[in-house]
Amino acid sequence: MIVGLTGGIGTGKSTVAKLFELLGAKTFNSDENAKQQYFVPAIKQQVIDLLGKECYADERTLNRKFISTKIFSDTTLLKKLNAIIHPAVIKDFRAFANSYPGKLIIKESALLFEVGLIKELDKVILVTSPLELRIERVMKRDNLSREEIMNKIKSQLSDEEKLKLTDLVIRNDEKEFLITQTLAIFNKLNHV
Fold it and tell me: What is the pLDDT along the chain (192 residues), one digit of tens a residue?
């Protein structure tokens, strides 16, 4: 079974993915894979052609702040960049999934809906979290301003829109235990 795991920036989806992994699921982090794709020579050239050489701080480091400033203020650039990066991520995911037949596979992706990745999934789990808590987490984690975080949040579908396309929900609101919710969903998925 292939299950998508998504949630907006700062919701804690990576933490939930780690919990699924500890329970025995095979997890694929689409966002981490996407970061690696930037350094594949053919993709790197396309990114430079689209956004400029300033995208790369050096041979092994992205200038994330520069990229974010460009793409989160211009939805056309964001779509063009996704069209460069995501086909390669999809290819890597298919190879990953094929190497674990019969296993529960969790595909973690912030942009599951935005780039149309739900077609190949059996179920979708959405991790939600209150807006202010998300902003606080991302400010601490990424050292970004509130405005930068809000630009990223605005570039993603709202939780209300995602809920319409979601099968299961995990609330990361610091009131309900993440482990309990994740375990319940893991058990449910393994008995489908």
Answer: 999 999 999 999 999 999 999 999 999 999 899 999 999 999 999 999 999 999 999 988 999 889 988 887 888 998 899 999 999 999 999 999 999 999 999 999 988 887 777 888 999 999 999 999 999 999 999 888 898 889 888 878 888 999 999 999 999 998 999 999 999 999 999 876
Q: Where are the alpha helices (DSSP H) in 24-142?
A: 30-37, 41-51, 64-71, 75-98, 131-142
Do residues 13 and 132 make contact, with C-beta atoms less than 8 angstroms apart?
A: no
Tokens of 31: 């966002």
Can you count the helices (H) and strands (E) in the chain? 9, 7
Q: What is the pTM of this model?
A: 0.87
Q: Which residues pair with 126 in a beta bridge?
A: 6, 169
* 3-class SS of residue 37: helix
Structure tokens at 132: 């202010």
Rounded to a whole number of angstroms, the distance between the first and last alpha carbons of the chain is: 9
Going from N- to C-terminal start, the domains of the chain cover 2-189
On whether the 2-189 domain is CATH 3.40.50.1820, my answer is no
